[in-house]
Structure formats: C-alpha cells, structure tokens
Structure to design on (201 residues):
C-alpha cells in the first residue's frame, strides 16, 4: 500500500484474551494479503530491514549490500538483487512497495460480483440471471460479505464459552501496520492479534 493510503478493517475481538476472532475486510485488504505472496524475497528483506531479520537471508542481504563491485558481472547492478521489481503488475499499487520501486503499472484487477440462486445451492456465478446448473433457477441473489453480526451468531452456534467478552473494533491499516503484518506473517499464526492489538496489551 502506498505511504498515504489506508485500509479499514472491522475486527471482532475477545477483550479478555486480547485475540482477534474474526476480521471483516473489503477487497483492498484481501488484495493486500494475497499480494504478500508476490513479493520477491529481496523486497521482503528490504521492507522489514535486513538488520532485524533472523536467519541467513538477512545476512545474505547485508553481504550483497557490502560486496565489492569487482565481484559483480560487468553491466550488472546489485540493486537488481537488493531492490527487485515485483513481477505481478497489480501488486505494486496495492501494497507495501512505494510507486518508485519501478516497473510499468498494469491495469487494476477488474471488480466483479458473484450471484447465487434462491434454491440454496452451493453454486455461484459471475453473470447475473445465469441458470443454476443444479436447480435451473436464475442466479439473481448477489453474494455479500459476512457481517460481524453473523460472526457473533456463528460463535454462539459453536459454543465458544461464557468466558468470552466480544467487542467490535475498527482499525486502519497504513504503511506501518502493513509492514508489521508482513513481518509477523513470517513467524506467527496470530498475525492480526499480534499487530493490531499489540498496543492494547
């Protein structure tokens, strides 16, 4: 994500354990999360700082930073390794890398809607009014994201227990939080709790 852009996120939190139980997100956050898979390792190391990255990758990055130019092939630049370009065109605009990271911008991914039928079938289609292959009814019901209220219903359905204090929290994901999510994702299974609730502990 760019340095000025922010993404809103609605969280369902267990206030007692300081854990995120559910996150209601729009397309922008989903795109951001998926785009982490498109980042080259060199870009990841640069973003989260080679000096704080554990293991051999951080040391390798630092070695390339300080290697004598005589060890490089002619007409080759160490920036190709230290600041690699993101291959997926849409990843450059959505995410952690700043616009100056290079490369031509691709057209943004087309936004689309999903539709389902009224017959409670499990099929969905991108074309409104298409015939359901199971029940042959028109696929006219637009699929919408689950709301936080629905998530509370699910939690009650699965009997989480009475020791849970549920609360809704609205957070904004900017550059700092994006970097925190990237860093935490490399070592944690509770990324949103670690990054977005850390200040609340």
């Amino acid at each position: 994500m760019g340095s000025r852009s922010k993404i809103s996120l609605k969280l369902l939190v267990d206030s007692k354990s300081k854990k995120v139980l559910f996150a209601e997100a729009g397309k922008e956050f989903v795109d951001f999360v998926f785009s982490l898979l498109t980042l080259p390792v060199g870009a990841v190391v640069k973003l989260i700082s080679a000096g704080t990255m554990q293991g051999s990758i951080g040391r390798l990055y630092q070695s390339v930073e300080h290697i004598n130019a005589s060890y490089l092939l002619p007409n080759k630049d160490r920036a190709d390794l230290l600041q690699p370009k993101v291959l997926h065109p849409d990843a450059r605009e959505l995410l952690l890398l700043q616009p100056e990271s290079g490369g031509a911008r691709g057209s943004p991914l087309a936004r689309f809607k999903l539709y389902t039928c009224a017959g409670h079938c499990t099929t969905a289609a991108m074309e409104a009014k298409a015939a359901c292959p199971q029940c042959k009814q028109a696929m006219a019901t637009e699929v919408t994201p689950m709301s936080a209220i629905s998530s509370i219903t699910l939690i009650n359905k699965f009997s989480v227990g009475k020791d849970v204090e549920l609360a809704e929290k609205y957070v904004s994901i900017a550059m700092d939080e994006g970097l925190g999510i990237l860093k935490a994702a490399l070592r944690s299974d509770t990324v949103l709790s670690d990054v977005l609730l850390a200040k609340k502990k």
User: Anything to note?
Assistant: Strands lie at 7-14, 19-25, 115-116, 130-131, 138-139, 141-142, 166-173. Residues 56-66 form the longest helix (11 residues).
